[in-house]
Amino acid sequence: MPPHDPILADVAEITALRRDLHAHPELCFEEHRTSALIARTLQDWGIEVHRGLGRTGVVGVIQGGSSPRGVALRADFDALPITERNTFAHASRHPGRMHACGHDGHTAMLLAAARHLSTTRDFDGRVVLVFQPAEEGGGGAREIMKDGLFERFPVEAIFGAHNWPGLRAGQFALKPGPCYASSNEFLITLVGKGAHGAMPHLGIDPVPAACALVQGFQTIVSRNVKPIDTGVISVTMIHTGEATNVIPDRCEIQGTVRTFRTEVLDLIEQRMGEMTRQLAAAYGCQVEFAFSRNYPPTINHEAETAFARRVLADTFGADQVIDFEPTMGAEDFSFYLQQVPGCYFMIGNGEGDHRSAGHGLGPCMLHNPSYDFNDALIPVGARAWIDLARAWLAPRG
User: Fold this and answer.
1) Fewer CB near the last or first residue (10 Å), C or N of the chain?
2) pLDDT tens-digit profile of 163-210?
């Protein structure tokens, strides 16, 4: 950024705020301190504030000129149930809770942009600042929409961003179409008949049935899903048994399914259900099969993604904007994109060299207890938000 950019004057204050958020992480729908801090900060800057959307969400509104046009910018602010391993001064003060995904940084970048936009108001229209709770599994985007986000604050488009470790700090990555997968969970309960481990013929053992299912599920993607489509079935938990000489009477299998297309998800759910019921019957077990669809795939809109690429390239240089390789991770920004056109893009967080003394021994990766957001991104992200908002609300010929 140019050394005279006015955003740089606020960096120290916003960095301190970001580190305060990092030190006081709150889990989904419990972000009362975080919500209050965001609301108070916006109000101190003369920004119109609305609280309580999605339980703990905060929406700020900055009106410039008289145009009814609007654009939304979103940041998430919940933490993860992880015990932090870092020992620097702003490490989490709450064991078992940590900002291990950079939502504190996302909030800081949007706050920095909000301050500048509120001061200048050199645009014609409305900038809607969406500070969202509960991205980490709570579906905060869905809940904030249920409370009338787009009905109360109509916008033409919405943009969101996530820091991305491993991508060069300050570089941007985006693509049209699917960029994050859907997130889905399954829970299978196999019920057999307990018996002594030395007398298996007197019981019905659910463990072999569970083993057969785990193996069988892997053939669904390899033999039922078209090779040009993408799908993941991961069994991540198997719970059964209490003693080495007892055949258990039940076994639970849990895991996740990820796809980029609803049609692929429909096929996987159908085949998993069929295989579960038929294999359970073959092993003489009763079975319960539950499949939950959590987040839909995040699918960027073509025009809005092209717009974001153009603005980011104009501001930071074309060499700083690259194509994003889709991930099978999930993001509840997907709910917004089902209702309003928009784009979700990545900002490089670097390799972790920004961490000061006292960081954990692990890599600076998302959802890692040694992670920390790169504060050098605060002015970069703020400038991206400012230029995107101004460009969107610029007069159209």
Assistant:
1) C
2) 999 999 999 999 999 999 999 999 999 999 999 999 999 999 999 999
Which distant-in-sequence residues (6+ apart) come within 8 Å of 339 by Cβ?
A: 145, 150
Amino acid symbol at 384: A
Give the domain-ending residue among 260, 279, 295.
295
Could you give the CA distance from residue 87 to residue 95 in angstroms, rounded to a whole number? Answer: 12
Quick: pLDDT tens for 319-331.
999 999 999 999 9
The pairing of beta strand 286-295 with beta strand 183-191: antiparallel
* Tally of structural domains, the chain: 2
Mean pLDDT along residues 252-270: 98
pTM over 0.85: yes
Which of the listed residues 295, 311, 335 is the one where a domain comes to its end?
Answer: 295
Whether 192 and 169 map to the same domain: the answer is no
Q: Of 179, 156, 172, nearest to 311 (Cα)?
A: 172
Q: How far is CA 266 from CA 158, 213, 272, 273, 331, in A?
A: 28, 19, 10, 11, 19
In this structure, the number of other CB atoms found within 10 A of the CB of residue 118 comes to 19
